[in-house]
Design a protein that fits this description.
alpha+beta, Aminoglycoside 3'-phosphotransferase, Chain: A, domain 2, 4 domains, five-stranded mixed β-sheet, 28 helices, 45% helix, 18% strand, elongated, P-loop_NTPase, Thymidylate kinase, Kinase-like_dom_sf
Amino acid sequence: MDKLGYVPTQARGIRLRGMCNPDGSLRWVWPATMHEPLFLEFYNAASPKAKLFEWSVRLAFACGLQGLLFPLLPTRYGRTGVQGWPMTDFALFTGTPGTYRKAVCCHTNTTGQRFFVKMPLTPAATLCVQAETQALRGLADRPAVSFRVPEVAAAPHAGFLHQTSVKPAQAARASCLTPRHLAYLREQLHETSVRRPLADTTFWQSTEAQVSELQGLPETRIPYGLRAKLLQLYHRIDSEQVAALAFAHGDFTSWNCWLGPDLVALYDLEFAQPEAPLLYDLFHFHVQQGLLVSRRRPAQVRAAMWQQARAEFPALPEAELALAWQLYLLHHVSRYALAYHVQEAWHAQVQWQLTGWNELLTLELAPHAAHRQLCLYDFLDSLQPRAGVVLKQRAENAYYPGPTADLDLLVSRPQVARSVAFLRSFPLVRSVAVRRQAHMRSVDCFFQDGTFLSIDLLHELWRKSVSVMDGAEVLAHARHAAGITVPALRHDFEYTWLFYWLNGSDLPAAHRRHFEQCTPAEQGEMLDHLATKYNLHFSSIGAAATHQPALAQEVREHLREHSGSGFFRRQWRALCYGWGVATSFFRPNGFVISFSGVDGAGKSTVIEKVKEHLEKKWRKRVVVLRHRPSVLPILSAWKYGRAEAERRTMASLPRQGLNQSLKSSLARFSYYYLDYLLGQAVVWLKYTSRGQVVLYDRYYFDFINDGERSNIRLPERLTKALYTFVSKPRLNFFLYAAPEVILRRKQELSGEAIVQLTLKYRTLFGQLAGQYPQSRYVPIENDNLDNTLALIGQYIQAEV
């Protein structure tokens, strides 16, 4: 207690008892001779577990068995008598670690009146004690019905706050807002509400300063994503609007108030605000109780808070409530984030709050921001330092990798499970698909707004059955850059170089530029690393970027021979890789899409755009097939050979065949039909069973409606009936347009033929839709490409 300012005056020592925090530091201290558990005045017995602890302690003291629960502290904690401190019955709370830490002493005077003394231990705590003194004196001059606050007594020492106890008779705690809490909130709204432009209020000015200071921190442990979301929320608020404000306690929680028979007794008003957003205290009670005590999911906390706010204060417009909630989040989160920034040691509650704030901000921004981007914020924020290394990071900021880019991370095996669990529980995710391989997990996240994110979590750096790099070494030498952990430069270059060279391609331009922008010394280090490890010498990054098949084969041989493991380990990797390939055949992620339409309807352009969309947004491998599976070659290939037959087919116009023979048509159709029957098994085995998407440019429907295009003339009833045995694509789109539009594009058909074929296709799709409900048959008028792609995208999104 010497640091608290007391001066010893006599040699008589006081033996102490105490209780420690989970980290071993002292929490409460009291004289060993005390017969009443005065330290329980600091305890929040709101939950059943807490109430059981309080009851057990009181019973032990009543039976004189407190020594069994709380042994004597070592003699170094003993205290001699001190000037101005005659009482021997007191309890000291050493304070919550952090920026606002202060010790609090509870004692009773000779008349039995109980007092509390607050003793700040940091400069910020000193300001808080001064602010609380001012707030208490201000409230003393204001009549109150539903609440009361302590009285300020004479301070025993400069800078301390000496106040009376405000605990009423039959006092109790509550873990939820009761009618007495709500009566206090209603009184504040009725007595202190004002309306004024937000920009003119002290509250907004302090909030603005806090957000600005938080964004300007050069180095901080406060997560980047959290700060980015705060900034987005700040920019969404119009400071020129008129806002409703009222008095707020500022830290209104179950542990900062007592419930009496007919009122609420408030204390710890160090964050009191004369003008705060409406229901600031209601929001704070729910958030603190939910995140720190009940440990509920933030989404549940938010839902319960909104339900109570709307039920108990129905006269408040929803727009005002929404604004007040956003202002609370901005002010509360930015204030405490700045406090945690300067706090050296973070206790568990800090991480609980950071995680909870992140999700609350995500839910608030969900209607206005891409869910994929919000997930990136929260996911990267959730990674502890060096828990995951972002591979091939080329964007200026890893939190913004591009609208369709995926994320590759090297993580430990335990972190893989934690990351998958985090993504599954993300509040805005619609579904999560996890693809397992021997060395990694690929997690595909589909969000409620239709966006998509793919994350590869690698716990081994393998290429097929070959270990290309030591993952533990990469993790050990990783460096921190722009809020994330990335590989050391030499490991980054080596991994990128191996990734593309072993796949038979050059380094893409973006990767090449990234490394060429490094200093000459850094480039030399990267090239020297390759020379040392692989005995390959390159004169420049550009020379190393260009794939050389002969050298790539040497690298493969080197990796097989120097993979750092023995024969059995290599065989085990080969077995794992083979098992991964085998199981990939049974992933039901692939499907087939067909596009039909007369020539000139715009199929080729739409197919190209859809292919790009599937590959970039949904990270799907896509195969485009023309008309049929083509397991069997085109008929003319038997006469001219495959290459010449394909050349002749491309050079000739459709619908120009002169075949009029029924037998010839049957033979030709039977050949193509056999191709469909055999091909559907090949397409499944080769593509869709492995998660790939097959796009058909035309499909079997041409044989039903437009057989002349394939030089076939058969009854439609026959070809339509045989469709029963043909594989049904999941999605079937018929693109059509007005005859004049099609004729401007291509003049292969007459206007009358276009109208007739369009009618036949639309009729057929209507019939098939009723006959085969497991597939979708969708006619689309392709007069606006963007609208067409948007509609097709909705159907694809539902399937994916």
